[in-house]
Amino acid sequence: MHVVVCTVVHHPADARIYYRQIRALVQAGHRVTYIAPLGENAGPVPDQDLPYPERAVAPVTTVAIPRAAGRRRLGALRAAKAALAAHAPSADLLLVHDPELLLVLPPRRVRPPTVWDVHEDTAAALTTKAWLPALLRPLAAGGVVFAERLAERRLHLILAEHGYNARFRGTHPVVPNTTYVPRAAAPPSGPRRVVYVGHISPDRGSAEMAELARLLAPHGIAVELVGPADAAARAHIEAAGDLLRWHGFVPNEQALRLAEGALAGLSLLHDEANFRPSMPTKVVEYMARAVPVITTPLPLAVDLVRGAGCGFVVPFGDAAAAAGAVLKLDADPDLRVTMGLRGHDAALRSLGWPADAAAFVAQLQSWARA
Predict the structure, then answer these.
(1) What pairs with residue 179 in β-bridges?
(2) Residue 227 near residue 14, CB atoms below 8 Å
(3) Nearest C-alpha neighbor of 308 from the set 330, 286, 326
(4) Counting CB atoms within 10 angstroms of each CB, which of 32, 57, 224, 226 has the fewest?
(5) Which residues are CB-neighbours of 53 under 8 A, at least 6 positions away?
(6) Tens digit of pLDDT for each residue in 286-329?
């Protein structure tokens, strides 16, 4: 099977797209053409980190397009439209990852079976986008809802969360954001520190993490952020100065290796409509790496962390409560180890990607055959 995968918004080494889905397709012996923003602002796809098995038909073929960011989207969408027109008609299946791409799909008569991977509640997410004027956000959200209903009639959908099915008339397959879980739990190691892995923005707690760095510095505990940051978050990071270490974007597998051995993994997301029905992927990834979790009380994160007994739940916007949780773990090494092992055990039992990868590939194969 030849699958064309396209994103115009996400980083080309996005964990869900590249490390999970494309890897699963390649390991199942399928060919992939990957249309993605491979320019200087996004960084290259780290091919050395994608293990192509001997049975793979061929490595991933990449096609570079500009990235759609902020209000600069028309040029990127024109490039995506041209790339899709060139590569999709000869494929067995087309997999797109952004709602923007619904506007530039090839005509139905020439495109293969097409799948939209719904990563988030896009209409709700628009309420947090600083680049979109506030007066236009309700109009844009309404347009997204209309596009979702139209896409449901014309495309196949896969969803990142079970809760997203409530937005659609039908029920669609869910491909959750599970992760690769090492068989052995990584022990605590190295300097005393807490980590955050993922996109960094104010709604994901950038101000609280900067404040946390100030609160923990007198105790000799560092705060490390791993991931790209938007402009507002960069201002928080710069204001914290040397108290906060920001690694910038790091490919997912290296980022998770940086998290290993930390006192805790942070998920201080705000109470936003886009986050409420979702499981923060970082919570699953911390558990997989035997790192205790400190999370705000988003429903799915609370269920998972409290159910596994693998961390602390702190109030929204409360850096002091997060600091208190970190200090408890620092003062009690046995508690830190116990919580880490509980999280790793829960992840090993029910949050491993390989089982979901098999279902994902089987679903795409079924649609391609049909």
Answers:
(1) 352
(2) no
(3) 286
(4) 57
(5) 26, 27
(6) 999 999 999 999 999 999 999 999 999 999 999 999 999 999 99
Q: What's the one-letter identity of residue 165?
A: N
Residues 238-254 pLDDT 10s:
999 999 999 999 988 89
Can you tell me which residue has the tokens 């115009």?
8
**pLDDT digit string, tens, across residues 16-66:** 999 999 999 999 999 999 999 987 444 445 544 444 333 334 578 999 999
This prediction's pTM = 0.85
Find tokens 């991931």 and name the residue. Answer: 227
Fold classified for 193-350: Rossmann fold (3.40.50)
Task: Report the distance separating Cα 15 and Cα 66, nearest Å.
Answer: 19
Pick the CATH number of 2-176+353-369 from 2.30.140.10, 2.40.160.60, 3.30.200.20, 3.40.50.2000: 3.40.50.2000
Question: Does the fold of domain 193-350 match that of domain 2-176+353-369?
Answer: yes
The residue extents of the domains of the chain are 2-176+353-369, 193-350
pLDDT-based confidence at residue 71 (cuts at 50, 70, 90):
low
